[in-house]
Design brief:
It is a multi-pass membrane protein. This is Adenylate/guanylate cyclase domain-containing protein. It holds the Pfam family Guanylate_cyc. Keywords: Cell membrane, Membrane. By secondary structure, this protein is of the alpha+beta class. The chain folds into 2 domains: 111 residues, Beta-grasp domain (Ubiquitin-like (UB roll), Roll); 184 residues, Alpha-Beta Plaits (2-Layer Sandwich). Helix content is 32%, strand content 25%. It has 8 helices and 13 strands. The strands form 2 sheets. Strands 6, 7, 8, 9, 10, 11, 12 and 13 form an 8-stranded mixed beta sheet that branches. The protein has a 5-stranded mixed beta sheet with strand order 2-1-5-3-4, covered by helices on one side. A hairpin with an 8-residue loop joins strand 9 and strand 10. Helix 5 packs antiparallel against helix 6. The longest helix has 31 residues. The N and C termini lie far apart (91 Å). The C terminus is likely disordered. Bound molecules: FE2/S2 (inorganic) cluster (FES). FE2/S2 (inorganic) cluster binds next to loops.
């Protein structure tokens, strides 16, 4: 049976029995935001029910969970989780300003069904150059840029060789993910292989280039974790501008940060380590207290202890 829902200030749309309010509004051409693709995992499709609340199906389990976390009142419903049982329902979309419209949908018909993000299981990889600041302080700016380009090329080469994707760079570090085109086991293995390749390539780079030409050697810290994250696109007109968010990302970043205190260049969560086909030797298992995690977090150390860093600075030479 077909009912109708009146979208205040927009139009009345027909809703079939099997359709959600979101499906009906999109079918009727309303640019109704739906960042998670109608999976009950965001709040962008929410509507305020003005009339006929009793004609809607009860909130699904997913909707109940979101309403509880967000403390939404009873008359705020997720359009993608609500179906209609009768006439007399009037709603108002709650997210509908022009900037949102520009970001979430363009005016092509296809865009109404575009999913702005999806939930994926990925391997998350953070790497940071240790003690970069002292090098910057005693080097010429163009030398610093030159060296950074060399080191980041080395990172990129290993990451892309193992089918990883660089998501972001910040200062002397970067963040990459593995598993956009593979399953999680493969992703974890690839992340570890890329990390080990970087450690090995960096050793060669230090011995053959950095030490002889710049009297300096670099070390890095790597953190790897796996988990369910949301992959989306925050760019406007830049389809490659991927962003990956979720609590596992924070954990991976904290593992990378912990490399210093653990005195090991490669820290991987035990969860990720268990996925490895040929796990590298790990120096026992450690437990870390991570912010936001109630119990100590089990990790494996698969890198090397840091070397003593005090590379003697050569006396300045006069150029002729
Ligand atoms: S579209 Fe995400 S919850 Fe409805």
């Amino acid at each position: 049976m077909t009912h109708h829902v009146n979208f205040k200030g927009e139009k009345a749309v027909p809703v079939e029995e099997r359709q959600t309010i979101l499906q009906a509004s999109l079918a009727a051409g309303i640019p109704h935001y739906h960042a998670c693709g109608g999976k009950g995992q965001c709040t962008t499709c929410r509507v305020l029910v003005l009339e006929g609340q009793e004609k809607l199906t009860p909130p699904t389990v997913l909707e109940q969970a979101i309403k509880k976390v967000k403390k939404f009142p009873d008359n705020v419903r997720l359009a993608c989780q609500s179906r209609v049982n009768g006439e007399g329902v009037a709603v108002q979309r709650l997210i509908r300003d022009e900037i949102d419209r520009f970001i979430f949908v363009d005016d092509t018909e296809d865009s109404f069904t575009t999913v702005m993000g999806e939930s994926r299981k990925l391997a998350l990889f953070f790497i940071d150059i240790r003690d970069f600041t002292p090098f910057v302080e005693r080097s010429l700016p163009f030398d610093v840029i030159h060296i950074m380009r060399r080191i980041f090329a080395l990172f990129k080469n290993a990451i892309t060789q193992y089918d990883g994707e660089i998501i972001d760079t910040a200062g002397d570090g970067l963040y990459a993910v593995f598993g956009l085109n593979s399953r999680i086991k493969q992703a974890a293995n690839s992340a570890v292989l890329a990390g080990l390749k970087i450690l090995s390539d960096l050793r060669i780079f230090n011995n053959t280039y950095m030490r002889p030409y710049f009297n300096h050697t670099f070390e890095v810290g790597i953190g790897v974790h796996v988990g369910k994250v949301v992959v989306g696109n925050v760019g406007i007109g830049l389809s490659h501008n991927l962003t990956v968010m979720g609590f596992p990302v924070n954990i991976a970043a904290r593992l990378q940060a912990a490399t210093k205190e653990l005195n090991n260049s490669f820290v991987i969560s035990a969860v990720a380590y268990r996925l490895l086909k040929n796990p590298p030797y790990s120096v026992g298992c450690n437990y870390l207290n991570l912010k936001g995690v109630s119990t100590p977090y089990e990790v494996r150390l698969i890198g090397k202890p840091y070397e003593i860093k005090d590379t003697p600075v050569l006396p300045e030479t006069r150029q002729v």
